[in-house]
Amino acid sequence: MRILAINTASKQANITLWEDKGEIWELSYTTDNRSFGELLIPNLQTLLSKSHWSLEDIDLFVVTKGPGSFTGLRIGIVTIKTLAQIYEKPISAPTYLDVLAYQNKFPGLIFSIIPARKNEFHVSIYKNWDEFSKIEPEKVYEKNELIKKINYTSNILIVGEITKELEDLLPEELKPAVCHSTLKGSALAELGLIMFKNGESTTYLDLYPYYGQKSSAEINWEKIYGSQKKY
């Protein structure tokens, strides 16, 4: 099976062409909110050219659905939805936190963490030893609340985008458990294939970004117009 996997949830974006027979082509690049749209398609075309694949060859499209950059998620998901519609292929959409945990084997609990708003973090908890499973779904934790939860949990690995401020609050004995992680495109493709085989794929009609929190624009809108009036 040939897979195109795209991650635009983070500043380091990933485009991966992955085949279950072993062929892998990966391209990672640093971006920002202004350049997500400018760089994605040209980089995809570059990778397709190097691999001598075409979009018609793709059997499964995979994309991180969030949480992460609001702009990046919209661009990545719209791109995958469009391709899946044109080529009539399924989509797998793990969360960004899922992939960060999946690419780390550990015989305990894995805390997958990325920053949310100031002093808040997106967190999900997993096991990934004999098999990969989610123990606690995504939740936004306030910084001190998260530190308290970590302190009450034993045998853990902390992965993801760990800010220095958060790491400084950890007790010394837990700091070796921190693994500053960037997403691997091959892990995204592999997890997408697992989801497909488990019947957890979706279609372009049913795929939407998972933000995990309201945008600043939505919050400001509700302050002015109230939560009953849609943004």
What would you say this structure looks like, in words?
There is one protein chain. Helix content is 34%, strand content 28%. The protein is of the alpha/beta class and 231 residues long. The protein folds into two domains: 2-95 and 183-225, ATPase, nucleotide binding domain (Nucleotidyltransferase, domain 5, 2-Layer Sandwich), CATH 3.30.420.40; 104-180, Nucleotidyltransferase, domain 5, CATH 3.30.420.200. α5 (164-169) links the parallel β9 (156-160) and β10 (178-180). The mean pLDDT is 93.
Relative helix content: 25-40%
The major β-sheet equals: 5 strands, mixed
**Shape, principal axes of CA atoms:** globular
What is the tally of helical segments?
Answer: 7
Number of domains: 2
What structural class results from the helix and strand content? Answer: alpha/beta
Write down the CATH topology of the largest domain: Nucleotidyltransferase, domain 5
Give the percentage of residues in beta strands: 25-35%
Low-confidence stretches: none
Order of helices and strands: EEEHEHEHEEEHEHEHH
Count of DSSP strands: 10
What is the annotated CATH architecture of the largest domain? 2-Layer Sandwich
CATH class of the largest domain: Alpha Beta
Q: Please, what is the CATH homologous superfamily of the largest domain?
A: ATPase, nucleotide binding domain
Strand order of the largest sheet: 3-2-1-4-5
Mean pLDDT score, rounded? 93
The N- and C-terminal alpha carbons lie at a distance of 41 Å
